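A quick aside before the break. I want you to see a complete sequence-to-structure record at least once, exactly as it would be stored in a machine-readable document. Don't worry about memorizing anything.
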Amino acid sequence: MGEKVVAGAVDLSDRQAYRSKLNQCLEGLGRLLAERRFDRPRNLMGLEIELNLAGSDGMPRMMNQEVLQRIASRDFQTELGMFNLEVNIVPHRLGGRVFDQLSEELRTGLAYAHRKAGEVDAGIVMIGILPTLGEHDVVSANLSDVDRYTLLNDQMAAARGEDFALDIEGVEHLVCSSPSIAPESACTSVQLHLQVTPARFADVWNAAQAIASVQIALGANAPFLFGKELWRESRPPLFQQATDVRPQELANQGVRPRTWFGERWITSAYELFEENLRYFPPLLPICDEEEPLRVLDEGGVPELAELVLHNGTVYRWNRPVYGMADGVPHLRVENRVLPAGPTVTDVIANAAFYYGLVRALAEESRPVWSRLPFEAAEENFDEACRHGIEAELLWPRPGRSGGLARIPAVQLVLEELLPLAAAGLDAWHIEPTDRDRYLGVIEERCKRRVNGASWQVATYRRALEAGLGREAALAATTRRYAELMHAGEPVHTWPVGFPAP
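That is the input. The structure line, written in tokens, reads:
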């Protein structure tokens, strides 16, 4: 969401011009694919993490501009809410000791940012949803002062034509509404990028979709929203509802939401970009001066700025990305499934599991998506969001007999997916010590049935049992979480509750 956009009025001619440019961009993408102009395989991955700012009392701090000025690093940027930051790690080549390298870079960067934030009584908290956030925190006045967010909010609110309705029924039931998209800022996630060739894109994307539920089950870290205990991973339902520009009548007609799991397996990257144009009206109809087809005719490579901008306003959990580096175009799969946190070690373990598993699944001769109906993958995603580490998932039975079985996610990972992830990491030429260390974190999470969400809920309930009220218990849980997060040991080792005074 970092493009430079100037806020201002949008009229009908802007939309017509933008739609025309979008179609030119799509045609240009098709020509680039047909002419095989894309970058050769480079095994490049990237990582972005959205963060929260909270004070020593565990409460959110609306001061990302002040903190960013003190950090003074291009690696850290604003995000949607004034209590949000984002850290971006430069692309790395998958191989060798890359995961240890990433871990060290993240630890160093986050520790520095935390120190600088501490100068203004704020701190970095890496978590899916900050438990102490209240409805009064996620309002228009607390959106970051960035033109793109202002225009995006204005356009989405206008398209909706009424308040955004939140209705999430989990352990407890949350019902509220907002005149803006500000509640979406509560969602803080990890984005994992993988550069792929056009020929491999569909297999990697399908594999990522198939295991999205497994990622959520293992990594769930957002059980609370606005003081209520909801789903083990409450980000997906919150994100979908907080960005849902459909009035109820259009939802009833089956119009697709902008936050979308999808509806089918694919055979090419082009299909996803084409779907984005076919199904979703532009929200930011701002035209670049480039004429993409003329650039192609003259032998150049177009930026496809309108396509890139529009693509960024369709919130797929696995998003196709078109990018340019040194004048050469490339494609990436952006995996947006995981919540932030709990620790750097947990984030890197989640990344290692993902990159290993998608590599192995994408190269199978009889791929999982040929045996798993897309509807079952979507049902699995919902099940994992609701139940986290305790989820049971539909998965193809081994052998040629076919059919699906419902199996605990932790059993599926331990018996089938961890060995595949290890084989995938070997195919990336990851050092065995890195492979074993980070997949070992995933293994222990499964054996102990502990992740960020389960720890948060158990500790919160311990606080209630000790006599704290709801708000005090959530604040105490947040403070303890932040303490253990910065200590750095993976979440499966965290003691539940609070140390004795």
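Two observations worth writing down. Residues 1-7 have pLDDT under 50 and may be disordered. The chain is about 45% helix and 15% strand. We'll return to this after the break.
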